[in-house]
Specification:
CATH architecture of the largest domain: Alpha-Beta Barrel
Distance between the termini: 52 Å
Bound molecules: iron/sulfur cluster
Structural class: alpha/beta
């Protein structure tokens, strides 16, 4: 089988090229052709020596993911479903705004965390994506959109690792993908514009701060361990106090001077004023240092298996007012791509649930208990 060059960050590509007898600067040229120019045909890489192009033809390829479906929302959001083999499919979403274009990228086929308000979690878990499968989402979206918008300029300015999966549970594949997003010879994105969203894999938050510190978003969703254990089952392993300390520690290395907390608003579950006040106590303790943060309140997108409902708009407003009143910057996420099921928590490709996460989750999670 040919080597998929999307599997490498620049260091990896240099090592691969050197193993073929090529010099480092040739790897840099090749990296630029692939990621800056979006070229997959080696014969079009005109500044590479003929002999190198022949080696590439024989041993390598740029293997994109087959597209199963594409849906275009009336608000400009685009959702692709990609085939990743063996009955698994993942989803990727492009969200255009006036001042930026954001790509929401998946890191796993399914997710093992099993949050009961999330369509991905409801499907269970099949496997981690490879670096190539993570980068192929960006490579394909960028090259496709550039062609459709008839522009040479970059269309995707921001990446959020908020699609299917828990990115920090796929750490070894994630890091080369992040490095490629940031690399000036590839996508050249600012660290502030690449966000890893985690449900709280505490040891990996610390490793990320050392290996590739990018913007961090944490899926919080509850202000105490008893509720968070049920809403984000990973909390059983890494409880709130440990998670919030990891966030404090991360700030010393983060490209932004705050952590973003995501909070999905679930009617009657986590959306009372008392919940909001408990959150304030965590991040603005009466005694101790405040934790610089922003809250992003996410309207829940109901799906039948969840048995959960969206908080009414007036409740979300009142909840936001408690946080804002305590001096915490709080936004309510605009839902985008509702009409194509591309909004937050709605991504659900096709997952062969090899670990029966969905089955176990259905037996053990009772949110209203
Ligand atoms: S919310 Fe995130 S961590 Fe939880 S199940 Fe969904 S994808 Fe996994």
């Amino acid at each position: 089988m040919k080597t998929n060059l999307l599997d490498f960050d620049l260091d990896g590509l240099v090592a691969w090229c050197q193993a073929q007898g090529e010099k480092k600067f040739r790897a840099v040229q090749l990296f630029r052709w692939i990621h800056q120019k979006g070229v997959a045909d080696f014969s079009a890489m005109t500044d590479l020596a003929q002999s190198m192009r022949q080696t590439l033809q024989a041993h390598a390829e740029i293997r994109a993911l087959p597209v199963i479906t594409r849906h275009d929302s009336t608000d400009g959001t685009i959702k692709w479903m990609f085939d990743v083999g063996q009955g698994n499919a993942i989803e990727t979403v492009f969200i255009p705004e006036t001042d930026r274009g954001t790509l929401c990228v998946s890191s796993q086929a399914g997710c093992a965390v099993g949050c009961p308000f999330c369509s991905t979690g409801a499907q269970g878990f099949s496997r981690n994506l490879t670096t190539a499968e993570i980068l192929a989402q960006l490579w394909f979206a960028e090259t496709t959109l550039r062609r459709e918008f008839a522009t040479q300029d970059r269309v995707i300015s921001n990446v959020v690792m908020m699609g299917m999966g828990e990115p920090l549970q796929n750490y070894s594949a994630l890091i080369p993908a992040l490095k490629t997003m940031l690399d000036d010879h590839a996508y050249g994105m600012s660290r502030r514009r690449v966000t890893v969203s985690t449900s709280g894999v505490v040891p990996m938050i610390e490793r990320l701060s050392q290996d590739c510190p990018v913007a961090l978003a944490v899926s919080l969703h509850a202000p105490n361990d008893a509720l968070r254990d049920r809403l984000v089952p990973l909390n059983l392993k890494y409880p709130l106090a440990e998670l919030l300390q990891a966030c404090r520690d991360y700030l010393a290395f983060a490209p932004r001077d705050f952590i973003t907390f995501e909070y999905c608003m679930l009617d009657g579950v986590n959306d009372t004023d008392a919940h909001a006040m408990a959150l304030v106590e965590w991040v603005r303790p009466a005694r101790g240092e405040p934790l610089p943060c922003k809250f992003n309140l996410i309207p829940f997108n109901p799906f039948p298996a969840s048995g959960l409902l969206r908080s009414p708009p007036e409740r979300v407003k009142a909840f936001a007012a408690v946080l804002s009143g305590a001096g915490i910057v709080t936004t309510v996420r605009k839902t985008r791509g509702d009409d194509i099921a591309a909004a937050c928590g709605q991504l659900a490709g096709d997952v062969q649930d090899r670990t029966d996460v969905a089955g176990r989750r259905a037996k053990t999670i009772q949110i209203h208990a």
